[in-house]
Amino acid sequence: MTLATDALKRAQAALHDSEALVRAWTRIDMEHAINAAAELDARGDQANLPLRGLAVGVKDIFDVAGMQTVAGFAPFATRPPATVDAVVVARLRAAGAVILGKTVTTQFAVGDPPVTRNPWDTGRTPGGSSSGSAAAVAAGHVELAVGSQTTGSTLRPAAYCGVYGLKPSFNWVSRAGMFPLSHSLDHVGLLAASMSVLRAGFLAARNPSGPERPAPPLERRLRFGVWHSALHHADDSVRAAFNVVVASLAAAGADVFAAPEVVDYQHMFAAQQVIFCCEAAAVHRELFQAQPDDYAPKVRSFVEVGSVVPAHWYIRAQTLRSEIRALAVSTWRDIDAVLLPTAGSTAPTPETTGDTTLQAAATLLGLPAISVPAGLIDGLPWGLQLIAPGTGATEALLNVAQWVDERLPRSAERRPPIHAPAQPG
Known about the structure:
It is a single chain. The protein is globular, with a radius of gyration of 20 Å. The N and C termini lie far apart (about 55 Å). It is built from 12 helices and 11 strands. With about 425 residues, the chain is of the alpha/beta class. Helix 8 (about 265-290) crosses helix 9 (about 295-310). The chain has 3 domains: about 5-205, Amidase signature (AS) domain (Amidase signature (AS) enzymes); about 225-265 and about 320-400, no CATH class; about 265-320, no CATH class. Helix content is about 40%, strand content about 15%. Strands 1-3-2-4-6-5-10-11-9-7-8 form an 11-stranded mixed sheet, with helices on both faces.
């Protein structure tokens, strides 16, 4: 049996074809990956390994034994390699995954543009901060990658790169071995080439004693609530495509209606940003004081702003967060998923990682959210975001997203025609 080795050979071929253009990786350890694949194949069918031989990329804010964790911060390039895997990496490896290497992250998982380019058009951003993870999946280098989300860093790259992105419930898996940014907002995320791989990765890595609950089967008419007040954060083309998808879900048998409003969306985003800045400033206080010139502009601005935000603003933002979460869970309890575009546009040019606004709500509230590739707009992917109305409902949301994924009226083109940006003139 050579299943794992054959899968790794396909990854090698894809890397050879496109990595020079896409630049998704900071390190590829092919030698160790080949050895791990050979060991898996030698074991045959003796072990029940749900991810047997699946090549996985790991965002470079997570520890992988034998590799440095640089987090996009040049001074960290001299750090010694990690001696143990981050918990999420260890669980994926225990399920039979082969760790191929480290994927590019924006510096400290904030929004400064990375070197990575979007496989659909390398003149566009892949989004951030899980830039390399999304691009590596889209380019066919791996079928599964680990990302993170503190505002929109898993869902937005998934949408821009036309892959599946999952931000599960808060604390669905231990964050041990992950370089922190915001202790009450950081989520471990996953990006995948298919719903089946996304589900398998989640089930393999989740914490058995965490917040997740078993999901009942779908035996009734699904109910979707459209979050209308947030739609003005999307441009005309995305809103038009979103409306077509919503109509198609209704035609497929779902009940689709306006989700009851729980709060002004802009107030929610403001609360998220206050918490983010304050907690990032706390995480980076000593390192920033020691090496301020090595910080990228956006990280620097978040740390500097968070350092001067009054304590009562932070406390009020956290209080508002708790109030909104309780109201949302109560108000939306009879909805299977709240629907939004994942991002307000298709991938912009690489001077930015894109707008985080539409992804922030699920992060702030700790609710599970999935981005499903919903088609192409002028040749670029866009994503449909589904948010579960309760914490611990990630598996249930995966079931709902599977139903949606099978009914979306999208183009047959699912893989990017990787190419360099057109030259002017």
